[in-house]
Amino acid sequence: MNSTPQVQGAGLGLRRVMTREMSEHVPDAIDFFELAPENWIGLGGRLGRQLKIISERTPIVAHGLSLSIGGPAPLDTNLVIDIKQFIADHQVRIYSEHLSYTNDGGQLYDLLPMPFTDEAVMYAANRVKQVQDILGQRMALENVSYYITPKRDLDEADFVKAVIEEADCDLLLDVNNVYVNSVNHGYEPIDFIKKMPLERVVYIHIAGHFVEPDGLIVDTHGVDVIHPVWDLLEQTYSLIGNKPTLLERDFNIPDTEHLLGEIEAIHIRQKRQTQRQEQANV
Predict the structure, then answer these.
(1) Topology of the domain comprising 10-281
(2) Residue pair 37/62 in contact by the 8 Å Cβ criterion
(3) pTM for the complete prediction?
(4) Which string of DSSP letters, residue by residue, matches 30-74?
(5) What local confidence, expressed as pLDDT, does residue 104 receive?
């Protein structure tokens, strides 16, 4: 299994529009970057050189988009092999994917929900085990936002926990997704988080979302993080300590100074958690 040290602090999702600036200088506040390996595998030229410069200076984690762990199509083992090489080329610290499906013989360009059933637990877990065997290292699964459920024998929290434990993999805890689902499906977000296998959390996602006129929340990653999500992040720290936390911003990307303001908001909450722990140990 891979023994590369994992990340710490606060990170930022790396998008292609950022690579020139970040290859020239990475602000001190950014402790690591996250990227989708499918968008970079085999990429040469200027962008490829810039990514190499970035990965040699700053830790990288990879968050996949198209492996389709829960999908009906056969697992794309060629993609897994390519990801394994990408991990080696860029010293990737953590590899994760979504607990959902994204293709059925063709890319669907969306994260579609799995049925919350015992059968689906075993199906997804066995595919994760296959991926981990090929990679020769653990991977993490992310809890996803969803709007409908094809079939439900388990609640969302029990389903996510069962897959993670059966696969013996790690958890990428998306705090914004928990908040989005809690509003859309009517539950207490901190109760969901308490049900997770928190000892398996390797890092956390935080992001903004869009509220439709009818009150439905859509997980867009296109606006700033809102106060209730920041509060939920801080509650999460109180449960599990200062796990590395990544800011996702996929479109409507503001200037770096604006992004660094949100990165600093992560650091502030991590510092407060450190102070609370120190006071508790006095």
Answers:
(1) TIM Barrel (3.20.20)
(2) yes
(3) 0.93
(4) --EEEE-GGGTTT--HHHHHHHHHHHHHS-EEEE-SS--TT-SSP
(5) 52
